[in-house]
Amino acid sequence: MNPAATCTDRAKTPYRSAARRRLNTIALAISSLLAAAPVMAQERPGTAPLAADAAGQTGGGSGPVNVLDVVLTTGSRGLPRTIANSAAPIDVIGGDQIQKLGGNTALRDALAQLLPSFQATTQASLSADSIARPAGLRGLSGAHVLVLVNGKRRHNSSIISLAGNNQSNGSNPVDLDLIPVSAIDHIEVLRDGAAAQYGSDAIAGVLNIILKSRDHGGSSNTTVGTRHRYDNGGQDNGNTVQEALDWGFALPNQGFAQLALDGKYQQATVRNTDATGAFYYPVNGQPDPREATVNKKVFAGGLPQVKALNLSYNAESPIDESITAYSFGTVSARDGRVGQNFRRPNSLNIIPELYPDGTAPDYTLDERDYQFAAGARIERGGWSWDLSSTYGNNHVQNGSDHSLNASLGPTSPTSFDTFSSTFTQWTNNIDATRSIDIGLKKPLQTSWGLEHRHETYRTESGDPLSYKFGGYVYPSGPLAGKLATTGAQAAITVTPDDEAELKRNSYAAYVDFGLTPLDGLFVGLAARTEHYDDGSGNTTSGKLSTRYELTPALSLRANISNGFRAPALPQSGFAQTSNQYNVVNGVYQFVQSKSVQVNSPIGQALGATTLKPETSENYSLGLAFSPSKQVNVTLDAYRIDLKDRIAQTGFLSGTAVNKLLVDNGFQSGQSIKYFANAIDTRTTGIDIVGDFTQDLQSLGSLRLTLGYNRNKTEITHIRDNPTQLAGLGLTLFDRAAQGTITDANPKSKLILGANWRYANWDLTVRETRYDKVKLLNVNPIYDQSYAARWLTDLELGYRISDKATISVGANNLFNTYPSKNTVADTNGFPPYSSISPFGFYGAFYYTRLSLAF
After folding, report:
1. Concatenated DSSP letters for 757-802?
2. How far apart are CA 13 and CA 459, in angstroms?
């Protein structure tokens, strides 16, 4: 058996020790008895274990509230529906629980810790992907999840995901981490196709973030934390400080305004090993004396350094008895710095006059983002109207520091602004709903609406010296006569020919009906038609929802729908050049790669064609069982068929590709990628969610929950290999690219935990099991398998007074790491799985001070 085909688990961490096993056994026993994750579907904002009462105030609240009574704003229009009578599976996550986790992790990580079907990836040293990290729902990417704020569409990021080992590859989904956690009252997660109800992107589901709406009081949460000690050559270890503030005050006519602020400084986290081999050229035939003392832990990649500030407001004020005006918005600034691999002084990437001892460059990101919404709700003629306009903008300046373009020789700059990207979205909506008496026990709920959306995407080339071919030839020494490497090191560059400027409009109309023809039977029907003016064409989507109450304690629900996702503008327009290390034939190799536009001459010469929309069919069947107010269990099975799915090709390289590069004015030796409607996929899975609440009288209260997702994605069809590629002996979507869809994400995820409140104490325990994952290679002998892992999270809080609580806790308490790689490596890269669903950064310990005022 080839040793590269499996991975070792010889990391000498506490996970492998006898003490670790004993502690984990105890934690598992507690979790099995207490059963589950702190917040799951059927959970009401403000119920235990959420540290908020029904009014959203922090503290102990008034005790458990029946979760079946939660009123939803997502999944249906018109008359309010609760979790108990929802026809689709919906999770409700309270703001206080998000604040607990969001205070020591990013929002997307908090959701991943609370929702079994939500998965966020942790990228290392992948430029913007390490900062705006990919996430998805039910095995699909973030591009297939629609994000709403207060029911209004959130704009997308201008950052396109280029990480090879994630399902978001090629998309520019909404960046959840730009919404202040302190502003969130709760999040409603619709786990079902909803394109007919909400429009394009809602294929896997919908996240509706509901902002706080208090007219008095506020809170402060200050979190300080650090990572478990790791020998990383003296580099940063993830110290983090975060402050979250919110404050509400009254407006005229019983209105409100809620302000929120999140500030965060996150130090970089580096995990590396000793690089091997020489750093310097020999001196007189002998090793350079500096080899004996040089620090070999030089890889600087990992979690990025981040400085971020998110601001928001949410305001509403009645104008008269029938008109209420509202507005909300967010403003964000974020600077990120991602360390990269070390460039040795004895390489073609270095100019000795600039870096005599080599350099580990940084990718840099400077981001500004805002979104504002304004509208009015009007009661007229028996109809409830909602008129709104929302505008969002995301701008990112990309760069590189401690870098160089070696082909420019000793005159090369050491920092570059390489390119900028901007995405804007302007959405206008008219929504109307009313109840119509048709002679049944319950009226027919009728809703309709119109939407116009204008989107733009633009990339602008940066410093010409970042991509210029300087032609520098080493004049002397061991490299005499050789050509230095072209392009800014550890950077993504965009040339003037790569620039994109795209825009489009979409126009949509929908109708939505809800009917109760018989006692206990609900039927929902929605239809939507959309037109895109950029060539994506027209689409019609529909959804049929049913729920039947067999008994007061048991109900069945079923949904069938189809969906549509137009190609993201960046997928059609983004082009770039970068240099990076990739696994080639089981060994890390330095690769210069270029992503090209589908309508570019070189793209078309390699078989690229204009992108088509993705289409989907979604089927789900579930049951909800609530034998008492204290116990709730739901089970939902689903299947999502996705046709013409857009993905990036594998690396296309070789002699024929080199000729195409030279013929089109590019440097030879690069590997080409482009986006294509490459595959059809089928995703099948089940979600199981349960919760149990128990009043322990003098011993306090106990909240038990469970969440489980099992999910499998298969490729049902691969687009025929273009004749252009077949003639060159190349493959459009190779085995490695296929593995990012089928094997790179865990097929199951189990979350077990508990929350116990006693007097002034609050204890939360959570166990999460991530299934095994696999990294496929073009050659199967270089595949890597990574074992399943259990992670333990623990938090203990003590209420100092009615206004103050101190908490201490740990994510990944026992410092668990994924399986080790077996890829041959001389660079000192992290020894752990690059596709680990929980990262490879070990335990994070924190303390938090919460104040209410």
Report:
1. EETTEEEEEEEEEEPPEEE--SSGGG-EEE--EEEEEEEEEEEEET
2. 45
Asked if 199 and 528 count as a contact pair (C-beta separation under 8 A), the reply is yes
**Token pair 């008492």 is at which residue?**
628
Kindly state the helix (H) or strand (E) to which residue 584 belongs, with its residue range: strand 576-584
Are the CB atoms for 637 and 711 separated by under 8 Å?
A: no
- The count of residues in the chain is 853
| Interatomic CA distance for residues 845 and 766, integer angstroms | 15
Q: What does pTM read for this prediction?
A: 0.89
Supply the pLDDT for residue 99: 82
Number of neighbours of residue 773 by Cβ within 10 angstroms? 24
Sequence-separated (6 or more) residues with CB below 8 Å from residue 757: 48, 49, 60, 700, 701, 702, 763
Q: How many helices (H) and strands (E) does the chain have?
A: 9, 39
Residue 632's nearest CA partner among 622, 642, 640 is 622
CA angle (202, 208, 212) in 5-degree steps:
170
Q: How far is CA 319 from CA 35, 250, 316, 385, 806, in A?
A: 48, 14, 10, 15, 42
Task: Name, in order, each residue with C-beta under 8 angstroms of 21's C-beta and a sequence gap of 6 or more.
Answer: none
Residue 289, classed as helix, strand or coil, is helix
What pLDDT, in 10s, does the model give residues 422-445?
A: 999 999 999 999 999 998 888 999
CA geometry: angle 455, 458, 460, nearest 5 deg: 170
Task: Convert the pLDDT of each residue in 49-106 to its tens digit.
Answer: 333 322 222 333 333 334 455 566 776 666 566 666 788 888 888 888 888 886 667 8
Contact at 8 Å (CB) between 574 and 603? Answer: no
A 10 A CB-CB count for 254 gives 10
In sequence order, what DSSP letters do the residues of 589-614 get, joined into one string? Answer: EEEEEEE--TTSHHHHHTT------E
Per residue, what are the HEC states of 27-40?
HHHHHHHHCCCCCC
pLDDT at position 84, please?
Answer: 62
**439 — alpha (psi -120 to 50), left (phi > 0) or beta?**
left
- What CA–CA distance (Å, rounded) separates 486 from 469? 6
Q: Where are the beta strands (DSSP E) in 319-415?
A: 323-339, 362-380, 383-401
